[in-house]
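User: Okay, second chain of the day. Same drill as before: sequence in, structure tokens out.
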Amino acid sequence: MSESWFGLLLEVELGAPGHGGFCVARHDGRVMFVRHGLPGERVVARVTEDRGGSFCRADAVEILSASPDRVDARCPISGPGGSGCCDYSHATADAGRRMKAFVVAEQLRRVAGIERDVRVDELPGTGDGTGWRTRVRLAVDSGGRPGYHRYRSSSIVTELSCPQMDSAAFGGLSEQQWRPGAELQVALDGDGERHVVEIAPAQHSSTGRRSPGRRGASARRAASSRSRPEKAVIGSGRVTEYVSNRAWTLDATGFWQAHRGAPQVYTDVVGEWADAVAGDGAWDLYGGVGVFAAALAHRVGSTGRVASVEFSRRAAEDGRSALHDLPQVMFVPGRVERSIDALAEPVSVAVLDPPRAGAGRDVIAALAARSPRSVVHVGCDPASFARDTSLYRGAGYELVDMRAFDAFPLTSHVECIGRFVRR
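Assistant: Same drill. Structure tokens below.
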């Protein structure tokens, strides 16, 4: 193993953007993943992580030759050594979307074997890239102060200055004492009401408490994902949201798209691409409270059937309440990978909106075995979207339409929606 570069200051020229909010550079035969820079810039980079091997991670701490796409950073807490929230804060909106388009196209080419020109579209309500977010989850440090995790770290930046969300959402939170290790879910709902829910600290195993390595990190993630007690401290903890003139009431901690313009736009795309007709069977997998199920119900009509599969029983109950006037929609609480085989109805069209890790091999294989003629897939990570695209292709489906959206302005994250048709 070569000598560690950790802490070194190295002058490098930045190349193409990579998946994860960095640009790729090379120095002395090694690859560097450099954050806070832009393609074509020459920078001084400080190495922040070096585990040996072919690459290391670094932050651009001095810009020697700036890109014309560089602007003053709009997020005061996400620079070198700061939080991981706004990794494109220093780029113009157009430049950020071009970098995201490059990353999506590169993932499709490398992982799925598809050469495709990609454009990333702005969502309504984006404005200057600030104030678009309607919900955020904050961590609480050992002193009871809320904030954001530092990039690739368990330590917390306790300055509530991220510009993604209206600053009114954070009013008074820093002045209160919270339970160390808890989390705060903050939401501004469709009626403009603010809700703050305190989520009890995760109960970590001895591995999660003591191990600083990957096993410890995996144990801590598993503990955090388990159900924990919640307490609404501001508002009712039950938010009201609207799509296509229909209201949904759900838990503030339940899933809803973070960008205020995303739910309606995604629903419109799903409604357009889901080629269901009256009498068809349709599936809404990872369906949440049934926003896409409502769109499918209007396509299949009263003689069709829509099965919405969602792991959260509370979300399924909220969806059932919101869609009480659509008897053709059936909510099926349970994990998608365990529920597909139990769905008795034939399926003509399926819509999937899986978590960041994607749907994966087992789900796509089980879905393909039921032979829907088309699939609409929503993916919030370009790498997992490309992996799922490759799996669809292997199962006999072709990507015939795709759109990408700048659903997370100021960040490197991007949302993709693809339409797959059986060959």
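Residues 289 and 315 are 5 Å apart (CA to CA).

User: Thanks, on to the next one.
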